[in-house]
Amino acid sequence: MGLPRFCPRLLSCTLRTPNVASSLSVSTHLRVPGPVSQLRMASSTPRFAEGEDPQRLGLDTQSLLQQGWALDAEGMAVTKTFHFKSYFKAVSFVNLIASESSSKKHHPTMTVRIGSVDVHWTTHRPRGLTHKDIAMAQHCDNGAGLMGAVETGQGLKCGPSP
Ligand SMILES: C[C@H](O)[C@H](O)[C@H]1CNC2=NC(N)=NC(=O)C2=N1
Hints:
four-stranded antiparallel sheet; 162 residues; alpha+beta; 5 helices; Pterin_deHydtase; 4a-hydroxytetrahydrobiopterin dehydratase
């Protein structure tokens, strides 16, 4: 098995000044589907659902953002990827969250990979971020600690060992 071959066009992109325009052009070289205008960027402003207390939730949301959570493009969801040393730990984490979701009747979208889990919390009705999303995101952070989550880059990865 040989070394990965570099794409000269991609290399020239990454060597340019790292401003927004160049990172967009790198993304198009990496074949992100759809036009550049549809690229999803994280929002910096949370949008809380009707009936929520933005003052209280605002502080809690800022704490989450400092702990590695991000807002989605519309500011209506919080997302985070948790990394694990084994697939079993990743699935156990999913089950832990699933159990709390069932009891609280509030459910995430989760994508399980061999050594990581993407978690996405939003509220569908009323539409936007609610105290339930914030509480469940905090529960995820606690659960990840219990399951031995590791730093980004330290999780199990698919593919041949080096
Ligand atoms: C009736 C039931 O409790 C509701 O449909 C719940 C189910 N789980 C949910 N989960 C999430 N994430 N958002 C919701 O609005 C939601 N609604």
